[in-house]
TrEMBL record:
Protein name: Trehalose-6-phosphate synthase
Gene3D superfamilies per the UniProt record, alphabetical: Glycogen Phosphorylase B (3.40.50.2000)
Biological source species: Larsenimonas suaedae
Family to which this protein belongs: Belongs to the glycosyltransferase 20 family.
């Protein structure tokens, strides 16, 4: 370990999340959390605890410990019933759609809630024996909101931090959830709560005030029922150097060269997203179709490659989206393809990180149009993957967290405006080299000043500060 452990040699760190990166190489459908936290942890001297991705009937299965890619892991399986209620049910049929402003997709049930609380208690039981007084515990994402509360109940007095990787919606959306007050109260057990953007921060603050009568003590510190905690925005980022290396290697690799040969001189547009309705791929396909309708010179020319590895296949909405996208992709190709040209390459599978970075580097445009996204790390990865002498153009939805930091260099679109996205795609494909370089440099400056290492360092430093202040005031 370096960075963090050099500074705080005796200060242990336990990171907790539902999903941990798979040593079996899940082929790139793991989402931003696994990528961001992995990069942060490789430089710290920490332990990462979470679900091992497997189902096992034994409710008392112990932790398995192993090292992978420079990080220590402790993982455990969950039962089929827990998977159905905690993971598929409460996390992904209730919290995920609600937090992405889609109450129409919420499938609420009390059984799911019970599973959610039960598995959070199980996480607490696994963590408790690992915590020493100086151990910092950093909990990640919506699966584990009550964990801090259960840890405090078992008299864990360590610094507890929480980071939400997805959006936090406005109060009037949050209160659709029957237990919204409990959920907010669980959050008050943490010393520091991190969010992706200022909007998410504002929404959480409103909720704390409206639902729990929180007192604002200034400097982002709130007080609820005698407990003080801080809430702040820490936009997650990437390891820029790592991304650049991967992209160069990926372009040179056999996979990268095969892509190049198959495209020739044609301009390539790329999208990379888990197959999820929040990513806006349906409307994205429609915008691409509109481009082919309007810009005749792009027929036989532009190629759009959309990489969408399946995700959360047990959730009904995801299965439905999958067949919708298959239909639309088939429709676009059926309508416009020619004997020597397929406009839309829709790939329902994941690729290794090196291959994906190589694809990103070869793409003239990245078209990332989520209807709502906590951050969207692919946008940042695309920027870092570019060749500085011939960089591509990023089109990013204004409803993705990443648009706030990248707006001075990216083309920022409204993903609901299909004509608008189609026009922007035309603009991107026609953009002169000088303008591309200028825009790319602006985005790179942002990434270079706030990379993944600043992100974790800032969060952990403020966590310690807040914990010290809390201990002093007791
Ligand atoms: C998003 C979430 C993560 C999650 C990832 C993949 O990035 O914020 O918590 O791990 O999606 O989803 P999955 O359900 O496969 O873990």
């Amino acid at each position: 370990g370096s960075l963090l452990s050099d500074k705080e040699p005796n200060n242990r760190l336990i990171v907790v999340s539902n999903r941990v990166p798979s040593p079996k190489g899940a082929g790139g459908n793991q989402g931003g959390l696994a990528v961001g936290v992995m990069n942060a942890l490789q430089k710290a001297d920490g332990l990462w605890l979470g679900w091992n991705g497997e189902i096992d009937g034994d409710n008392n299965a112990q932790l398995s410990h192993y090292d992978f890619d420079g990080v220590r892991f402790a993982t455990f399986p969950i039962t089929e019933h827990d998977h159905k209620t905690y993971y598929t049910g409460f996390s992904n049929e209730i919290l995920w759609p609600l937090f992405h402003y889609r109450p129409d997709k919420v499938e609420y049930s009390r059984e799911s809630l019970d599973g959610y609380l039960r598995v959070n208690q199980r996480f607490a039981r696994h963590i408790k024996p690992l915590v020493e007084p100086d151990t910092r515990v950093w909990v990640h994402d919506y699966h584990l909101i009550p964990l801090g509360y259960y840890l405090r109940q078992t008299s864990v007095d360590a610094p507890l931090g929480y980071f939400l990787h997805i959006p936090f919606p406005p109060w009037d959306v949050v209160r659709i959830l029957p237990e919204y007050e409990d959920l907010l109260r669980y959050l008050t057990s943490y010393d520091l709560i991190g969010l992706q953007t200022e909007i998410d921060l504002k929404n959480l603050r409103d909720c704390m005030v409206m639902a729990l009568d929180a007192r604002d003590l200034g400097d982002n510190v709130l007080e609820v029922e005698g407990r003080r905690f801080k809430i702040a925005a820490y936009p997650i980022s990437i390891d820029v150097n790592d991304a650049q290396d991967l992209a160069k290697k990926g372009e040179q690799s056999a996979t990268g060269q095969r892509l190049k040969r198959s495209i020739g001189d044609r301009p390539l547009v790329i999208g990379v997203d888990r197959l999820d309705y929040s990513k806006g791929v349906y409307k994205r396909f429609q915008a691409f179709e509109r481009l082919l309708e309007n810009a005749e010179h792009q027929r036989g020319n532009v190629v759009f490659i959309q990489i969408s590895p399946p995700s959360r296949t047990d959730v009904h909405e995801y299965a439905q989206l999958r067949s919708t996208l298959e239909r639309v992709a088939g429709h676009v190709n059926g309508r416009f393809a020619d004997y020597d040209w397929t406009p839309l390459r829709y790939l329902n599978r994941g690729y290794g990180r090196e291959a994906v970075f190589g694809f990103l580097r070869q793409s003239r445009v990245a078209l990332l149009t989520p209807l709502r996204d906590g951050m969207n790390l692919v946008a940042k990865e695309y920027v870092a993957a570019q060749d500085p002498e011939d960089p591509g153009v990023l089109i990013i939805s204004h409803l993705a967290g990443a648009s706030w930091e990248l707006k001075d260099g990216a083309l920022v679109c409204n993903p609901y405006d299909i004509d608008g996205v189609s026009d922007m795609l035309e603009q991107a494909l026609a953009m002169p080299l000088e303008e591309r370089k200028l825009r790319w440099r602006r985005m790179m400056d942002v990434l270079e000043t706030n990379d993944i290492h600043n992100w974790s360092q800032n969060f952990l430093a403020e966590l310690m500060e807040m914990k010290l202040a809390n201990s002093a005031s007791q």
